[in-house]
Design goal:
Number of strands: 5
Number of helices: 7
Strand order of the largest sheet: 3-2-1-4-5
Distance between the termini: 25 Å
Strand content: 5-15%
Largest sheet: 5 strands, mixed
Structural class: alpha/beta
CATH topology: Nucleotidyltransferase, domain 5
Oligomer: single chain
Order of helices and strands: HEEEHHEHHEHH
Shape: globular
Length: 207
C-alpha cells in the first residue's frame, strides 16, 4: 500500500461497480461525526469486506504481488501471494519484502480472479487507500479481456483512509483533510486489512 490521491472516485471500468451505488459511502464524509456514522453503519449492516494488497510499486505497468480479504467479522476469505506480470520496483520490495525470486511458482492474477470474485461479489468493499488499490485492480482486470467482461461488475470500493482523515480532522495545506498513515499494519495484505478493520471499529466507538 502506498500514499494515494485524496480523491476516492470509483471508476466504472471493466471489473468496476456497475450497479446502484451504496447509499452511504466514505466519499461523502466531510467531518468526524459523518465518519463515525459511516463506520457504525458498516458494522451494523455487516455486509462489507475489507481488502488490502501489496503491489509492484507506484509506476506503470503495475500489478499485485499479494491480496488479502477479510469479512466484517475478521474471517479470512482470501489470502494469497501473486506472481506479477511486471517487475517489482526495488522500493516496493523494501516495504513488503516480496521479490521476483520469492514469487516464483505462485499463481498469477488471472488464475486467482474467480476466487476473488467469489469473496467480493455482492458486498461493500472497504479499502485503506482505495483509489490506489482500485487503479491496480483496474489494470489487472483490464488485462483479462473478455473473461472479465463475462464476470460482470463488483460492488463499490469505499476508502477508509478518506473516512479516517475526516475523523482525525487535520487540515491539509492543499485543502480538505490530511491523509493519515494506517496504524497497526505490518505491510502484508492480510495484516493491513486487519488494521483497517480495527480502525473501522475504533471510528465506530468514537475514540
Amino acid at each position: 500500500m502506498a500514499t494515494a490521491p485524496a480523491s476516492c472516485e470509483h471508476r466504472r471500468r471493466m471489473g468496476s461497480p456497475s450497479g446502484t451505488r451504496t447509499k452511504a459511502t466514505a466519499a461523502r464524509i466531510g467531518n468526524r461525526e459523518e465518519a463515525v456514522r459511516w463506520a457504525r453503519s458498516l458494522l451494523s449492516e455487516g455486509d462489507f469486506m475489507v481488502l488490502d494488497s501489496e503491489t509492484t510499486g507506484l509506476g506503470t505497468p503495475i500489478d499485485f504481488v499479494e491480496v488479502g480479504v477479510l469479512s466484517s467479522r475478521g474471517e479470512v476469505l482470501f489470502d494469497s501471494p501473486i506472481k506479477p506480470s511486471c517487475p517489482i520496483e526495488p522500493g516496493a520490495s523494501r516495504v513488503h519484502g516480496r521479490t521476483a525470486e520469492s514469487l516464483v511458482g505462485e499463481r498469477r492474477f488471472f488464475e486467482l480472479y474467480p476466487d476473488l470474485l467469489e469473496a467480493l461479489w455482492g458486498k461493500r468493499v472497504v479499502v485503506y487507500n482505495a483509489p490506489y488499490d482500485r487503479r491496480v485492480w483496474d489494470a489487472a482486470v483490464g488485462r483479462l479481456g473478455a473473461r472479465a467482461a463475462l464476470a460482470g461488475g463488483l460492488p463499490p470500493w469505499e476508502c477508509a483512509m478518506r473516512a479516517f482523515a475526516a475523523y482525525v480532522g487535520e487540515r491539509s495545506k492543499r485543502g480538505g483533510h490530511k491523509n493519515q498513515k494506517l496504524v497497526g499494519g505490518d505491510h502484508t495484505a492480510l495484516g493491513d486489512a486487519r488494521a483497517t478493520l480495527r480502525l473501522i471499529e475504533r471510528m465506530a466507538q468514537g475514540v
